[in-house]
Specification:
Helix content is about 20%, strand content about 35%. It is α/β, with parallel strands linked by helices and about 180 residues long. The strands form two sheets. A six-stranded mixed β-sheet has the order 4-3-2-5-6-7, with helices on both faces. Bound molecules: inosinic acid (IMP) and magnesium ion (MG).
Amino acid sequence: MNQDIKQIFYSHDEIVNKSIELAKCINRDYDGKFPIFIGLLKGCVPFLAELIKHITVPMEYDFMDVSSYEGTSSTGNIKIIKDLDIDICNRDIIIVEDIIDTGLTLHHIVNLLKSRKVSSIEIVTLLDKVEGRIIDTVKPKYIGFNVKKEFVVGFGLDYNQKYRNLPYIGILKEEIYK
Ligand code: IMP
Ligand code: MG
């Protein structure tokens, strides 16, 4: 285990098994369709990579990069750093997130994508921090795990850009924040 980690919440095996479970639901719901998975950089990368291995319907994926966080608290500011390359008009969209906290990021993104005349939009998130929600317009259809209002890292989730590479999800030792 990485020396900065205090406790592991979800092991790599648990994350893989959950990704398989979520992919099965998506395969069932999108039978006969051709969805676009939209990953929100950078945190989505390990989860998107795992999830799509188990997707059996025809699909494509693209990325958007938005920023809303500095350190461990939301600034409430959403900035689009990289937009999509694909035209999403009349397409079925599945947004892939690492974690939903306040809901502000997805609220803005869902509104933006809806304005591009998509057929449908759903959200798949590896983690959901429901207690952190300050806007409840965002309803993820596919949720991996519910987490408490603690700051977690690993499997794409970072603290000041570090720890995204960890194959598990856990919390940091208190001294790391000093
Ligand atoms: P929000 O839902 O707009 O508050 O923002 C969600 C984004 O905040 C996620 O995509 C993460 O990048 C980041 N975030 C929220 N909670 C955590 C956490 O516990 N660890 C790491 N990043 C987090
Ligand atoms: Mg993110």
